[in-house]
Amino acid sequence: MSFTPVLRSEWMKIRTLRSLCGALLAVLAAGAAFSALAGVSDTSDEDFDPLFMALSGVAPGQIAAITFGAMAVSSELHGGGLRVWLTAVPYRGRWFAAKATAVGVSALVVGVVTGFVSLGVAKLGLGAAASGLTWDEELRGAVGCGIYLALMALLATGLAALLRSGVATLSILIPFLLIVSFVVGDMSGSAADFLPDRAGQVVLQETWDGTLGPWTGLAVTAMWAAAALLAGAWSVRRRDA
After folding, report:
1. Which of 48, 79, 100, 113 has its CA 20 to 30 A from that of 58?
2. Cα separation of 241 and 239, whole Å?
3. Whole-angstrom Cα distance, residue 48 to residue 32?
């Protein structure tokens, strides 16, 4: 079976599995809701960054994104589903590439929509505090939001394939994003700039003073995601279904 029908089958899974559709909707809902709350926050802080504040809903939204990426793989592991698919698609690398493509593109589209919606609802609340944002900055933030969420979903996809468990994947990534990244960041200084979440979120800031810029930060996150996907592909090819 060629790559195109395999990819089409992966699109169909995402469209028809309510858990995956729900996770994508949660990305949008969480991003928009928390950005709306951020729109009524205090803007008197001298370190206030209107773009980062408007896109602050990305932080909870990324939890839904990694859940989507992890579930996209873990859903195949229940009830021997993966063995059935590998019977139809014996080339495991082709199946995993189609899976990663479907996850990445889906998360990218939803992420970009989330970025623009979050900006819109947050600016309504921020009012004059966000008036200094240029169209280029807003476009960079919204598109960067989509790319970042897609990369985090792919990071979870690769890790879930490696660990063969969605629960184990989320048990590692969620505490890392919510706790470990902040603790390590406070202790390690500029080295924390190269963590996947901190590097990728530079694109959401109007100004930055760290080691990485918006696109180099996303490149670092992409390297983390690529490493996870390569490890996941190795696991899929080498281990029993």
Report:
1. 100
2. 6
3. 20
pTM, to two decimals: 0.91
Which sign, positive or negative, has the C-alpha torsion 86, 92, 97, 103? positive
CA distances from 150 to 33, 45, 216, 225, 236 (A): 19, 31, 16, 9, 21
Q: Which two tokens stand for residue 166?
A: 């969605």
Q: Do residues 158 and 74 touch, judged by C-beta distance below 8 A?
A: no
d(C-alpha 63, C-alpha 241), whole Å? 27
- 8 A C-beta contact, residue 92 and residue 51: no
For 111-148, the pLDDT digits (tens) are: 999 999 999 888 887 777 777 788 899 999 999 999 99
- How many DSSP H helices and E strands does the chain contain? 11, 0
Within 8 A by CB and 6+ apart from 127, the residues are: none
Q: Report the amino acid identity of residue 193.
A: D
Are residues 93 and 87 in contact, defined by beta-carbon separation less than 8 angstroms? Answer: no
List, as own/partner pairs, every contact residues 214-221 make where C-beta atoms lie below 8 angstroms and the sequence separation is at least 24, other chains included.
Answer: 214/140, 214/144, 217/193, 218/144, 218/147, 218/148, 218/151, 220/194, 220/196, 221/148, 221/151, 221/152, 221/155, 221/196, 221/197
